[in-house]
Structures are given as structure tokens and as C-alpha cells.
Design brief:
By secondary structure, the chain is mainly α. It has a domain of 71 residues: Cytochrome Bc1 Complex, Chain D, domain 2, CATH 1.10.760.10. 41% of the residues lie in helices and 5% in strands. It is built from four helices and two strands. Strands 1-2 form a two-stranded antiparallel ribbon. It is elongated, with a radius of gyration of 20 Å. The chain starts with a helix and ends in a 25-residue tail after the last helix.
Length: 117
């Protein structure tokens, strides 16, 4: 009986902890942390480099397109991120800068690259 009580308590505790961390804490986070962008980034070698892109908010049409992109799950395969590897600049344009994704919550950078970006 004592083991069952402990297991029940542990299960309820884990579920409560999951609900609080995944459901409550994201709403408590201040919005000022999500839109602040620095204009200087540090590269892998330690030099400071000014970013080229300025963060601007989306237009209404861009916002609707982004919502469709999220809803349809396109971001699972297509990451909207130009990587700094050979040939990407010629194929897809300039490499993505840090400030370009300031208004992307949630960000859509992705971790896998299955289809063309």
C-alpha cells in the first residue's frame, strides 16, 4: 500500500510539473525578452561583426502566410534558414543573420533539411 501511494504521488507530481512548465511558464515570460535584437554578433573566431539585416515586423499578408506555413506543417521539412555552406549563397541568397528572426515566435529554423528551403 505504501508503494502504491508513493507511485501515485510521484505520477501526480510529474504531471503537475509538466503542466506548469509547458503550459503556464511560457505565458509568464515577458514579451520584452522575445523582441530584443542586438546589432552586433560574435563570430566563431571571436571578431565582432555588424548584422546586415534589420528586424522589422511582418506585414499583415506576411503574417497570414506564416500562419499557413505553421498550420500546414511546412516547417518540418523546410527551415527558412540559409546556411553558411558552399553554394548556398548562389542558390538561395545571402546567409541568414541573427536579427532576421527577431519576431519569429516560435522560430522556424528547423533541425533537419529534407526538402529545399
Amino acid at each position: 500500500m505504501n508503494v502504491r501511494f508513493f507511485a501515485l504521488f510521484a505520477g501526480v507530481f510529474c504531471i503537475t510539473l509538466a503542466v506548469v512548465t509547458q503550459g503556464v511558464l511560457p505565458f509568464v515570460e515577458p514579451s520584452s525578452r522575445t523582441t530584443r535584437v542586438t546589432s552586433v554578433v560574435r563570430t566563431d573566431f571571436g571578431q565582432l561583426k555588424w548584422t546586415v539585416a534589420e528586424a522589422t515586423d511582418y506585414t499583415e499578408q506576411q503574417r497570414r502566410g506564416r500562419n499557413i506555413y505553421l498550420r500546414e506543417g511546412c516547417w518540418y521539412c523546410h527551415s527558412q534558414f540559409v546556411r553558411p555552406v558552399t553554394g548556398e549563397i548562389r542558390r538561395w541568397g545571402p546567409v541568414s543573420e541573427a536579427g532576421e528572426y527577431a519576431y519569429d515566435v516560435p522560430h522556424l529554423l528547423g533541425t533537419r533539411r529534407i526538402g529545399p528551403d
